[in-house]
Amino acid sequence: MGRIAVLKGGNSLERQVSLRSAARVEDALERLGHEVVPVDVGADLVERLTSERPDAAFIVLHGVGGEDGTVQELLEILGIPYTGSGVLACMRSMDKVLTKHLLLEAGVPTPEFFAVGETAFKRLGAAGVLPAMEERLDFPIVVKPAAQGSALGIKFARTAADVPGALVAAFSYDTRVLLERYVRGRDLAVSVLEGAALPVVEAVPQEEHFYDFESRYEIGRTRFVCPAELPEPITARAQALAVATYELLGCDGVARVDIMLEDATSELFVLEANVIPGMTDTSLLPQAAEAAGIAFEALVERMLELAFERDAGRATV
Ligand SMILES: Nc1ncnc2c1ncn2[C@@H]1O[C@H](COP(=O)(O)OP(=O)(O)O)[C@@H](O)[C@H]1O
Ligand SMILES: [Mg+2]
Question: β-strands 3-8, 35-40: how paired?
Answer without folding.
Answer: parallel
